[in-house]
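Recall that a protein's primary structure is simply its ordered list of amino acids. Everything else, from secondary elements to tertiary packing, is in principle encoded there. The following example makes that idea concrete.
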Amino acid sequence: MDRRTDTVRRFYERAPFPGYPPRDSLVTFRARAGRNEFLRRLDRAIAGDARILDVGCGTGQLPLYLARADRLVVGADLTHASLALAAAAARRFDLSVQFVETDLRAAGLQRECFDVVLSCGVLHHTPDPRAAFASIATLAKPGGVIVLGVYNAFARIPLRMRRIIGRASRFRFIPGDPVLRDRRAEPARREAWLRDQYLHPEEHRHTVAEVQRWFAENDVEYLRTFPAVTLDDASVDLFSPAGDNWIAEGWLAQLQWMWTLGREGGLFFTIGRRRLVTRADS
């Protein structure tokens, strides 16, 4: 593990992210997660018998939410403290999820094994997000789906402005952050959000076009983004191709994300499908 990656690991050992509210139960956990439109649509899009891998699962919220029907769900992360919270929550909720401690750039997982590979809010904290994506793309089987969530370069601008104000006040005053406001009664989770969003030692920001290039370089067919960057119906299957991929429309959508996604962390999702025949096979 290189120095920068180890710095990130130690950062999350101190404050695992995002953590769980006190007295959280399976009912309250699913109700809270179910209010997220992206999670609801992701759950509907994934088959009931799928093999799912969440790379950089943190404290395990996404693997636990998707652990239903006959799915085999694996959560992988490099931080032991985060995985300990994830495993404890799985036991408390009586859910079957396998957790693995590993570095995503050299993951101890079988290649071309998973129907769905997720990496949400992770690669932008790696020293080289482009290379990190190349590593995780091979974990999806040919025809498998990859869901990548990273910070958007435009949607992140409002938080970066709040960070400047926060630094001036030594983070005693951060205006306009709805998550910090909602977590006033949960000091541990409020601290975890503050550290993750405002004090992280490694952060990168990306555009839709940049992520699309990563997909093309690794034989992954681009399907769509969430939120959509086109005017196609937002209610369609999350794993279906977008109606078009007009570049100008995409840039306009990303500018709009400053007022929508920018209210929180500026995270957007890009969905693709690994090609059945890759360059290495042809």
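DSSP finds eleven helices and seven strands in the chain. The radius of gyration is 18 Å.
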